[in-house]
Design a protein that fits this description.
alpha+beta; six-stranded mixed beta sheet
Length: 484
Amino acid sequence: METLSLYLLTFNCARTYIQPALFSEHLFSALPASSSIPDIFVLSLQELAPIGPAFLGGSFVTPYLNKFRQAVKLATVSKNKENGASEEEESEGSTYVNVVSRNVGLTGIMIFMKKSLVERIRGLEIAGVGVGLWDMSNKGAVGVRIRIATNESTGSRAHDEDELDEDRDEENDTITLTFLSAHLAPFEEALLLRNANWKAIVQNLIFDSPTTSLDKPSTTDEGAEDVPLLRGIPPSSSTPPDSPPSQIYTPNSHLFLSGDLNYRTSSTRPLPSSLSSFPKPTPSPSSPNHFTHLLPHDQLTTERHQNRTCHHLTEPPITFPPTYKYKPKHPSSTSPAVLTESSLLLNSSYPWSTHRWPSWCDRILYLPLPTTPSSPPASPSSIKIHTYTSLPLFLTSDHRPVALSLSIPNSPLLLPPDSTPNTHSAPFPITQDWRARRRAARRKEIVVGVLAYLGLTWEGNGVLVAVFVGGLGGWWVLRSLLLS
């Protein structure tokens, strides 16, 4: 295997369940034609669930994650049938294992890997941070770092301490991948706050508890993986002395960022007179309403080029309409539950919300391979982009999903001595009290989560009613005993 195929998809779920059967029909639509399912599939989710279940985590958020598991399973079966895969081929590796699913508040990440690749996992780390109010995770990021053996022989798991020590020294036989799912501050005028959110993520999302190659990922489709991400932060003494805490930027690791980054195409909200310039579904770039006329105003591109956010990361060219903010009609018996680009072209209009500028809020970026003065700009060992596009508009959300299909070399990322400096170095240092800040924020999240669950969900309302009825009944019995 010379390359690893990756498929990254980001989606703001609008705090509601997806429809697995419908979602699965379009899940792999950004894959190249006739391609098989990718080796690794990463789902970045924002506003994964209502704030009560999301802040409480664990089994409260599992039903929302299970909907995506169902969609991935359906899409995988359909893709394999489309490619004519036999049952034997599916059992040998053309099916997925959900190796990790985690959330920090309303932001989640799910990573699926082919069965044939799972046994090559050599280590896995998880970290998260909130950047919302009081450092809570109504906005924030969750990251996963995976070390994978480059071939099956080095991927076999050690059975004794000597073999384990030998494996740990074989850094030249592993590839390290860091995946980050993020959700930054909203609103057109909050540009500086979004940049500050990014800085806080770089400084406070810290990997400090690596697992060993003996930690086998779960192969079930249920919620056993979905414990609250930072329910118990291990003490610093648990970190091996040869593995200090590390940030999302680290030498010899690929880095992929996906999420609702919320960068807009204007710093002010639209006026009524602005509506005529909103993009419309037209195939002609020369039309004043073609979406490309908004691209020069994209905040993220400007801020990246000014080195103020998403440092060193790059993004494939954007060739799709803005992904936010839509105002879709609720699906009914007479209207579809999903709007494809072809159906939007027939309607000659996008269902934009009139109080937000259409913007590319949902993005996927990656850290390019290091270059040297002698290396060519493109080579067989380069990252190869296949497709970067948006998916259809699902009427349960005001965002369109965005997907990136790419291939990376199946070889260790070793920085050459003459590589371009600082491209894999963090632009900001680690915050010294990051652990204490996260613990304090987690306590606030639990309080807010309990109150939101009791006050804003039918299940929580039922608990309150039961407590009230039980208390009233107890008072009545006690009163009767005292008066008898």
